[in-house]
Amino acid sequence: MRCVRISTKKITLDIPEKPDRCALDCSRDGDVHIFIQYDDPEGFNSGLARYGSFRNVQNYIVLAGKKGGDFSERCGYWGEKLVLYAQQLGLNT
């Protein structure tokens, strides 16, 4: 599983529809399970969160699937597509 920090700023209710739609499209097209978690300050506080050291993370993108084959490449490609889209929306990823 890979996580990408979106932003620490509060995301208003009208914005999440757009990145959520993009995440669904990327999940389908890339055969990777992608979802965005909003307003979750505890997301990296558990002992299971072993990917780097994060502070003040409340919003993040999760890419998950079976390892092997071209999984890493698909995560990189489709994850970056979603990150660039979030940047276009002004979410400062």
Structure commentary:
With 93 residues, the protein is α+β, with helices and mostly antiparallel strands. The protein has one domain. The protein is built from two helices and three strands. The chain has helices at residues 17-30, 71-88; strands spanning 2-7, 33-37, 59-64. Strands 1-3-2 form a three-stranded antiparallel beta sheet. Helix 1 (17-30) runs antiparallel to helix 2 (71-88). The chain is globular and about 35 Å long. The two termini are 18 Å apart.
What would you say about this model in short?
The chain is α+β, with helices and mostly antiparallel strands and 93 residues long.
Biggest sheet features: 3 strands, antiparallel
Mean pLDDT: 80
Question: Could you state the order of secondary-structure elements as H and E?
Answer: EHEEH
- Helical stretch tally: 2
Give the oligomer, counting copies of the same chain as homo and different chains as hetero: single chain
Rg from Cα: 13 Å
Q: Into how many domains do the coordinates divide?
A: 1
